[in-house]
From TrEMBL:
It holds the Pfam family Methyltransf_12. SMART domains: PKS_PP. One of its GO terms (molecular function) is phosphopantetheine binding. This is Carrier domain-containing protein. Keywords: Phosphopantetheine, Phosphoprotein. Residues 6-81 form the Carrier domain. CDD domains: AdoMet_MTases.
Amino acid sequence: MPEDGGAVAGLTAAVAAVWADVLRVAEVGDDDEFSALGGDVRTASRVVALTNQWLGANLTLRQLFLHRTPARLAAALHAEGVRVREVGPSAAGAPAGEWERFWDSTYRFSARRRDGFNTAGWYDRRALGAMPEAHMREWVGTTAERLRSLRPRHVLEIGCGLGLIMMPMLEHVERYEGTDISTEAVRGLREHLAGHPHGARAAVRRGDALEVAAGTSGEHDLVLLNSVVQYFPDLAHLEEVVAGLTRGDGVVFLGDLLHRGLHRPMHVAQVVEQFPDSAPVRRVRTATEVSLAGDAPLLVGPDELRRLVARAAPGWDCDLLVRRGTHRTEMNRFRFDAVLSRGRHPNSDAPVRPLSWPGNPGGVAEVLATLVRPDDERVVIRSVPDARTHACVRLTRALDEAPEDLPLAELRDGLAPAAAVDPETLWETGHRLGHGVAVAPAREPGLVDVALLRGGDDWAAAALLRAPGPGGEDC
């Protein structure tokens, strides 16, 4: 086959794989039409985003509907200089499940970086392309920093992918075992580890979460599932995994959990950007429902998770923290982490002074200096408005209650300004004042609870928030 013909064939296979994964069909032919396979505007957005992420392309919705078939679209992409990396045949014995197939295709066709910073599968739903590298590096960096603060020596990661979290952890641990449902991920990560200076510390094998959880025997002091739980089928599955992983005495880290109470506000925040100020509320509501219908990950609320852990792992503590980061992204605004442990930082009998955040706080340092007395060692501040999410939660409530013909501009104008605080500012200020700091999702979406422990570390501060504040159930 001529060189160009082979390149186009590879692109065609990649395009067909994206369509099959998004449209959930078993097979897509080179000349199958997108609309005939059930494709519509909603699924088209995800097809465009994944194609751009996998192939480094700049595909648009217009091009997708213009070219209509994998063969014609691949030819157009090739003419624009897009190339697919050279791939061999699919790994033998590759599984056929929906997520297994998706990740096998993702890792098979996505470009690889020699430095190991492989962000395959991550895309920006707003820009319909790859996530900005600065955002991904911050996400990886803050995750690794949080994990390293637990001082693990023997790590088990379930859902390790191509090693995005493993790479910055390897030099700090004695042993790191990674597992993944994707045979392609296992193969690709093994190839990279063969040339890594600390590769001998790592082992990688295929396995799903339930299989791995059932086979653990407590030899790891940290078990990590980061940005994995959202792919589980239901909370019963998560509960079974947690029960299996908590038979030993190590720490279980559930990272990047999608907050149930913030899921709709996240979609509202993205949808309203698409409409002019004159758009009526009913159009925004309809678009929000369409957006939600195309995004059905496993969600969990903070109290919901606490109850699940209490059932699955009696006697274990569940410490929650919001995600860190200065870039305001989907990952740090609408997700949170949970650390499950037994006997770490047990609550003492020392009194905790509960405080309320003032309605119009001004500067964070001034507020903390006013609220926290010099002799306060343990302070908990409840229901602090989170600057990353509070506005979109308020907008969502207003949208749900407004008359359907109300223009979007009037809806926004009707929202009185509300003071809110960025969690990063709370961490920075608390540390500067000599406190261990923990910032956790509060019971009410859009708010956070804050713990300050004079002279302590952040994990000891997090233990002060184990008893949730007053309020109702998760939204």
